[in-house]
Specification:
By secondary structure, this protein is an alpha/beta fold. The protein contains eight helices and nine strands.
Length: 244
C-alpha cells in the first residue's frame, strides 16, 4: 500500500509514519509537509526507512504542483493528521484556524482524488468533542468544535458525490491521547471526556495503528470512536510496536 500522511511532524502524524515504516504491508509512505520530514529516530531496526518520501508543499490552498502530484499518483490511502488543536487555536486568528483545518483538507482531498488509485481511503483525524450537527448549542469551544464538524461533513459529502470514483472516507474521533513523554491526562479532563459516551482515552500507537489498519483492510464504519480505535489498534499491534 502506498500511504500519504499529512501533519507528519505532529504527534499523531509522526507516529503514523513510524508504524507505517515498520509495517511490511505499507510499501511507500509519502509525507507531505511545509518542510522536509525525516524518519522518526525511534523507528526501530525492523523498519524500512527507504520507504519514506518527503514532499514539501508550500501552498496548501492551490492546485498541487507537478512536483507533488508525481508523489501522490497511484496512492491507495491518506491519513490526514493536519489540523490546529484547540489549545493552539486560542492564540490564532480564527480565519487562519479555519483555513488550516477546512481549506487545506478539502483542497488536499480534491487534488488527491484526481490522481490516486481506486479505491482510495481517506481517514481524517478529528476528536470526540467535534460536533457535526451545526444547529447544536455547545457549552465550550463552540466555534472551533462546529468548524471541525463542518470539515467532517464536507469530506463525507465529497465521498458521497464521488462514490463512483471509489473515494472512501471515515473520521477517527479519539478522546484524550496517551503517549510516553506527555503529561498524564488529568482526572477532571477524563471525566469531561466520559460525558461524550465513548472510551475517553486511547494510546497514541493504537490510534495510529487503527488508522493504518483501516487503510490496509478497508473502512469498517464512520466515525471511529475511541473504543473502536482501541480495539482495532490493539489487534493490529504487537507488543514491540508500541511507542515507549
Amino acid at each position: 500500500m502506498k500511504l500519504i500522511v499529512t501533519g507528519a511532524t505532529g504527534l499523531v502524524g509522526s507516529e503514523v509514519i513510524r508504524l507505517a515504516l515498520r509495517n511490511p504491508a505499507v510499501t511507500s509512505v509519502v509525507a507531505i509537509a511545509r518542510k522536509p520530514v525525516l524518519a522518526p529516530a525511534n523507528v526501530g531496526s525492523e523498519s524500512q526507512t527507504s520507504k519514506l518520501q518527503s514532499v514539501v508543499l508550500e501552498s496548501w490552498t492551490s492546485p498541487y504542483p507537478e512536483s507533488v502530484i508525481r508523489h501522490v499518483e497511484d496512492a491507495d490511502a491518506c491519513i490526514w493528521a493536519l489540523a490546529v488543536t484547540p489549545s493552539q487555536s486560542k492564540d490564532m486568528d480564527f480565519s487562519d484556524v479555519t483555513a488550516i483545518c477546512y481549506d487545506y483538507t478539502m483542497n488536499g482531498l480534491t487534488n488527491m482524488a484526481a490522481h490516486v488509485s481506486k479505491p482510495f481511503r481517506f481517514i481524517y483525524t478529528s476528536g470526540v468533542t467535534v460536533e457535526r450537527d451545526q444547529e447544536k448549542t455547545l457549552p465550550f469551544l463552540s466555534e472551533y468544535r462546529l468548524m471541525r464538524g463542518r470539515v467532517e461533513n464536507a469530506i463525507l459529502d465529497f465521498a458521497k458525490q464521488h462514490d463512483d470514483q471509489g473515494i472512501e472516507v471515515t473520521v477517527a474521533k479519539p478522546g484524550g491521547i496517551e503517549s510516553p513523554g506527555r503529561d498524564a491526562i488529568s482526572a477532571p479532563f477524563t471525566t469531561m471526556l466520559e460525558t461524550f459516551g465513548h472510551t475517553p482515552t486511547v494510546h497514541l500507537s493504537e490510534l495510529a495503528a487503527a488508522m493504518i489498519d483501516q487503510c490496509l483492510h478497508g473502512i469498517t464504519k464512520d466515525p471511529l470512536w475511541g473504543e473502536d480505535l482501541v480495539e482495532i489498534g490493539q489487534r493490529a499491534l504487537s507488543p514491540e510496536d508500541y511507542l515507549r
